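Let's sit down with a protein and look at its sequence and fold side by side. Once you have written the record down, we can walk along the chain together.
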Amino acid sequence: MHLSATFLLRVVTLIATVFTTSLARADLAPGEIGVVLMHGKGGAPTGVVKELAASLEEQGGRVANLEMPWSSHREYDASVSDAVKQVDDAIAALRSKGVKKVFVAGHSQGGVFAFYYASQRPVDGVIGIAPGGNAAATVVRDALGATVERARKLVAEGKGDEKGTFSDWESSRGKNDVHTTAAIYLTWFDPDGAMNQMNAERGIDPEVPVLFIAPKGDYPGLKRFKSQMFDALPPNPKTRMYEPDTSHIGAPAASRSEIWRWMVDVARSQ
């Protein structure tokens, strides 16, 4: 039987299309995209990030929804380096379950820490959801400067491991007390340390894309500096700002569909 060149071309094209589609689907098989999710200051995995975690799992992702040292229950019971190890362990657990593409995501202070983590470890993408808690912000320096200096003095005097009462600051509540050691406190609140948002963002590998979520109803201070903070990110074609019409607290749930869409898009491009 004689087959025309046109027919053969169509067959070859169809086979190529099916093969390419199969590869793309294989790359995005359920359970092969994973994300470490971190709540905001004073929050918990069962708080405002809970709905986002459930949604990402429903759509086929694997989620490690962690309770971090800045939760209401833990009250800075571990240092920044301990928190990095906690995320390291979560990522290792995700990979042991078949995850091939790993993202780190955080709400508010969790977002700033996600930026810091990505500046220290290789990841496939970062999601900062209404990132806040920048230790270098002027309002934070003004509120906590005296407490930070007291912690420095205690460390210098060899009392860094003694537990005491220190001050924290949050946009919605102002100052409040936390109980930890001076040494641990400094790892979180030194304006030149890990939670300096600008430095953390600039330290991210340019090959790593970032989804920067800036809700339209965010706290005034975070809205004022969102463009400056977004512009500090290394250029990447997949890095973008998403602005849902919601509040600071509502941002995780309101962004759930966009976060999954973006992660899938990034995974495919890689």
Q: What stands out?
A: The chain has one domain: 32-141+149-269.
